[in-house]
Amino acid sequence: MATYKTQIQWGGPNADWHDDADLTIVIQNRDGVVPQTGMPTTGTQISWASAQGNGSVTFFEDGNRFSGSAQFKGEGPVGYRGTIKR
């Protein structure tokens, strides 16, 4: 679906943001929950969990950016945001 340039934030809501690894999201579904072509609409939420970590994000600006939180294996929770790579 799309690749996002991501950043993480630790130390509270006023702390600096730090570049993180790109995130590629592919969602396949039925009934148009996410369009088969194009980006997720504003307000679409996704979450994931695995042995490597978990996260939950909400998309804005018709899928051009997201904001939420993540927790990676062996680390505490962090703010997590991304913008679409063009």
Which structural class best describes the helix and strand composition? mainly beta
Tell me the Rg in angstroms: 13 Å
Helix content: under 10%
Mean pLDDT: 90
Biggest sheet architecture: 7 strands, antiparallel
Give unreliable regions as ranges: none
H/I helix tally:
0
Order of helices and strands: EEEEEEE
Shape, principal axes of CA atoms: globular
Give a count of the beta strands, DSSP E runs of length 2 or more: 7
C-alpha termini separation = 13 Å
% residues in beta strands? over 45%
Task: Walk me through the structure.
It is a single chain. The protein is an all-beta fold and 86 residues long. Helix content is 0%, strand content 51%. It contains no helices and seven strands. Strands 1, 2, 3, 4, 5, 6 and 7 form a seven-stranded antiparallel sheet that branches. The radius of gyration is 13 Å and the shape is globular. It starts with a strand and ends with a strand.
